[in-house]
Specification:
This protein has 146 residues and is α+β, with helices and mostly antiparallel strands. It folds into 2 domains: 1-46; 48-145, no CATH class. It contains 3 helices and 4 strands. A hairpin with a 6-residue loop joins β3 (104-122) and β4 (129-145). It starts with 6 loop residues before the first helix and ends with a strand.
Length: 146
């Protein structure tokens, strides 16, 4: 009588372990894919196009959305600086077109500047004050159901 397992038994054990490991990995991959799909669906639902799609499915007559177009920022300084810089949002330029593809028609557009803060400092070498205004330009888009 030989000690231990035969080569065939060892090979069968290895094959069984490998099959269990593959099955475990496949289950983990499937679960990860399901989580990614749920995250993608939630991300789409929160996006402008996703919100437009949901409103269209709900048979809404109008759909309104506000999208930031640009931001106005600037550094304050001891010398009374009043320099501002404009940063345009990196939003996709085809968002409005994609909303229209859902079945909406762009009816009206308006823009508004929303001030989020301002800082004034006295100028050191000149008279007056330097003011830095901060805020953003927001586009208000009204769509009508086609």
């Amino acid at each position: 009588m030989a000690w231990g397992k035969s080569e065939e038994e060892k090979a069968a054990d290895r094959a069984e372990r490998d099959a269990r490991a593959r099955a475990q990995q496949d289950a983990e991959d499937a679960q990860a894919a399901q989580i990614r799909a749920q995250q993608d669906a939630a991300e789409f639902a929160a996006s402008p196009v996703g919100r437009a799609t949901e409103a269209f499915k709900a048979n809404a007559g109008f759909f309104q959305i506000e999208l930031e177009v640009s931001q106005l920022t600037g550094p304050t300084s001891f010398f009374g600086s009043s320099s501002n810089s404009v940063e345009h949002s990196g939003a996709a330029t085809d968002v409005l077109g994609r909303i229209e593809e859902v079945g909406w028609h762009l009816e009206h557009v308006g823009f508004v500047f929303i001030e989020t803060g301002a800082t004034s400092t006295n100028r050191v070498f000149l008279s007056g004050e330097g003011t830095v205004t901060e805020g953003n330009v927001t586009g208000i888009y009204l769509f009508r159901r086609v």
